[in-house]
Design brief:
The protein contains twelve helices and 21 strands. It is α/β, with parallel strands linked by helices and about 400 residues long.
């Protein structure tokens, strides 16, 4: 665990999970993750901002004692998800005088998750302040980045923002600060794609909120601390904004190589026209890399064989993910093949994507091995994609 001073009287307590490979049994963690809590000591009172994953409670309590904290007056819960609240019951047992500061939604979730008693809480509202003496905490209730309970905590005098999951990165590193910006950008993009992208309208609103504030440092609940806030805010502004870049993401699979031949043919035609193309075989899909590729891509083309008049189940799962993530993609296409069946697959697949607000290109579906007619249709599809991306 990293215990480091950010500013005099403000410490980061970073529990590093080097070996964790999967989050929520869904999100890949190629570089592990961290769970960040913070201690703010005022002239009169002390506040703990969030806690850590319950598997690391022992180290966390030892770190608090190592700071010489004989008393904790407030435990601020910015978010009730257990990776940030899981050690709160143990902290309350160690510091029974502490009050949990949480909004009404967070309180109900903490009671449900941890069995905390209602009298353990002091409710906070949006823009409410709490004095620690010579320091003031201001709370901002910012629902849907990414839960309805999410709160930002801002130390007014020090201009330090604790942003909870917002602006975070799944990255296990001994670096306290996000100074290796290229590495952090890759992790933060993947994190945004998997967790924040479904809430893009809210993200845009809260980026604007933070841009109007005087902030010297941002401490998220996962990943390194930003001592150059504009670095991460500028990326979020681009990711959540409406602009896309001319790039084509192609999730696909093939049972007897017919669809694979069509995908390869289309890729060659698009690359020859100078477009960026990124294919993903969905049979062994790295959902993190796939989600990250969708963040700014203008176009997604699904390639699937037909199974029982619909897309292959693995493609249906990939389509479910795309639909849930709600990328800002502008154009969509469907290509594929069938054997003894018919070409109804594309209709079933398109119906799985109601959240994808795209202009659909004409589908290209071949019976058996793609022949001259199907290849000519792929040529036309490539031209349509190039033309749309040039507009």
């Amino acid at each position: 665990m990293i215990v480091r001073e950010l500013k005099p009287g403000i410490h980061a307590l970073v529990a590093i999970d080097w070996d964790r490979k999967l989050f929520d049994e869904l999100v890949p963690l190629p570089e592990g993750t961290s769970y960040n809590a913070y201690v703010v000591v005022g002239s009169e009172k002390t506040a703990l901002i969030d806690s850590v994953h319950p598997s690391m409670t022992g180290d966390f309590l030892a770190a608090l004692k190592g700071l010489g904290l004989e008393r904790v007056d407030y435990i601020v819960s910015n978010h009730a998800e257990p990776d940030h609240s899981g050690s709160i019951p143990a902290v309350l047992a160690e510091y029974p005088e502490a009050k949990v500061l949480a909004n009404v939604k967070c309180r109900s979730l903490l009671i449900a998750s941890h069995g905390l008693k209602p009298d353990a809480f002091t409710l906070i509202k949006d823009q409410q302040t709490v004095s620690l003496g010579d320091r003031t905490l201001r709370f901002m209730w910012v629902p849907w980045v990414h839960w309805p309970d999410t709160t930002f905590t801002y130390v007014e005098e020090d201009r330090v923002l604790f942003s909870c999951d917002f602006l975070g990165a799944h990255l296990a590193t001994s670096d306290l600060y996000a100074d290796d910006e290229a590495r952090v950008e890759r992790a933060a993009r993947m994190y945004y794609a998997e967790i924040m992208m479904p809430y893009r309208p809210h993200v845009k609103k809260y980026v604007d909120l933070l841009a109007a504030m005087a902030i010297d440092m941002i401490g998220p609940s996962h990943g390194p601390v930003y001592r150059r806030p504009e670095f991460i805010l500028s990326h979020y502004r681009a990711w959540a904004g409406d602009a896309t870049r001319p790039a084509v993401v192609i999730p696909y699979l093939s049972m007897y190589e017919s669809t694979a031949k069509m995908v390869a043919y289309l890729i060659d035609r698009l690359m020859a026209k100078g477009l960026s193309v990124q294919p993903f075989n969905v049979v062994d899909l790295d959902s993190g890399r796939f989600a990250a590729a969708l963040v700014e891509a203008s176009t997604v083309v699904f390639g699937s064989p037909t199974v029982l008049d619909g897309p292959h189940p693995a493609m249906a799962a990939a389509a479910y993910l795309v639909n849930a993530l709600k990328p800002k993609t502008r154009y969509g296409g469907i290509i594929g093949s069938y054997g003894w069946g018919n070409d109804a697959m594309q209709n079933s697949l398109a119906k799985m994507l109601p959240n994808l607000a795209v202009e659909w290109f004409a589908p290209v579906v071949a019976g058996g091995v793609p022949k001259h007619e199907a290849l000519a249709e792929l040529d036309r599809l490539a031209e349509d994609i190039v033309r749309a991306n040039a507009a």
